[in-house]
Amino acid sequence: MTTRIGIVGLGMAAGPHAKSLRDLDGTVEVAAAFSPSIERRQAFAATYGFPVVDSLDAVFDDPAITAVLLLTPPSTHLDLVRRAAGAGKHVLLEKPLEVSFERAVELVDVAERANIRLGIVLQHRFRPVSIALRKLIREGRLGAIVSASARLYNWRPQSYYDQPGRGTRARDGGGVLLTQAIHTLDLMISLAGLPEEVAAYAATTPVHRMETEDMAMAAAKFANGAIGTISATTSAYPGIPDAVDIIGTNGMARIEGSRMIAHFHDGSEETIDDGAIGGGAGADPMAFPHHHHRAVIEDFTEAIDEARAPAVSGSEALKVHRLIDAILRSAETGERAAV
To answer: What is the pLDDT of residue 1?
Structure first.
């Protein structure tokens, strides 16, 4: 079955989605794409060949459009999901859910009350290395988890934050945690579960002039007694691949960029490399392949056809928002914070 979708938002985030949608031609039909900027509409149409429209009404009021792909700034998400819900359209939403945990919860509630599918673009879960490590953990190959840690050392030049609204609470809701590290933290949660407590620090370093944090560090404690660390920054020139470490009673495994390697106590090991070039860790935040976005869209359209929740549903995405909220609360109060 072909899913007819509309796209709202044609900024930087639109590229990997548009490439994915071209790959999925025949399964997904782009019926309309909208941006309030005529220049962006013209550039998008010229680059990807998809039809563009000059109003939101043309997307939300078209009964033939089944779902909308929302690629707008975080501060707009709740209102747009409300409109989609009112029109009975399913939503695939670029992360984060919203600018605050409270608005994120409200957004998920809106979608659930309207009985629409809500998928969130947290594509790291769909990387082959992530799937391989999740399988090792599920099969018990690593044993009981005793530690889980996540690291994101990105580089963003000041010119990145000089863009209007970038790194502000009003538009983005936060800094490195909500905008960049959310992917790596979500991956850690999908592998090891949600920590129950954190003790954290956060700062805006002298590297950047911005309103929100460009560095955050935390210790984390999990319900089973496992402990770990979280570190995230956009001040690490020139940027290195993100990493997740899982230590178990039978071995340990690390995902770093496109590579996963697991070492077991019996002397064996397992390695996989998905061959992806670039991870957006450096000055160009879009320097990564689009294949994992394609997997997100495929899962979302299958969820619509099968009347099930997407792999990363709104309620599932709330977990990483809870973690980020706790890290920032701990950093602000100087006390441990429950997740």
So the answer is: 80
Q: What is the pLDDT of residue 278?
A: 65
Tens digit of each residue's pLDDT (9 = 90 or more) over 102-121: 999 999 999 999 999 999 99
pTM of the predicted protein model: 0.96
CA–CA separation, 166 vs 164, rounded Å? 6
| ∠ Cα 68 85 39 (to 5°) | 35
How many angstroms separate the Cα of 29 from the Cα of each of 99, 211, 228, 297, 309? Answer: 30, 40, 43, 12, 21
DSSP 254: E
Q: Would you tell me the crossing angle of helices 182-192 and 314-333 to the nearest 10 degrees? A: 110
Could you count the other beta carbons within 10 Å of the beta carbon of residue 55?
A: 11
Average pLDDT, 10 consecutive residues per value, the chain (339 residues): 95 95 96 98 97 98 97 98 98 98 98 98 96 97 98 97 96 98 98 98 98 98 98 97 97 96 98 80 80 97 97 98 98 98
Q: How many residues are given for the chain?
A: 339
- Quote the CA–CA distance of 115 and 296 in Å, as a whole number: 20
* Under 8 Å between Cβ of 226 and 148: yes
Centroid of chain to Cα 314 = 11
Smallest CA-to-CA distance from 193 within 19, 15, 339, 45 is with: 339
Alpha-carbon distances, residue 263 vs 140, 186, 260, 270, 272 (angstroms): 13, 23, 10, 7, 12
Non-local (6+) Cβ contacts of 282 within 8 A are 154, 155, 238, 239
How far is CA 109 from each of CA 76, 104, 197, rounded to the nearest angstrom? Answer: 16, 9, 25
Tokens matching residue 44: 């998008």
Distance CA 334, CA 275 (A): 42
pLDDT given at position 111 = 98
pLDDT in the model for residue 277? 64
CB atoms within 10 A of CB 220: 27
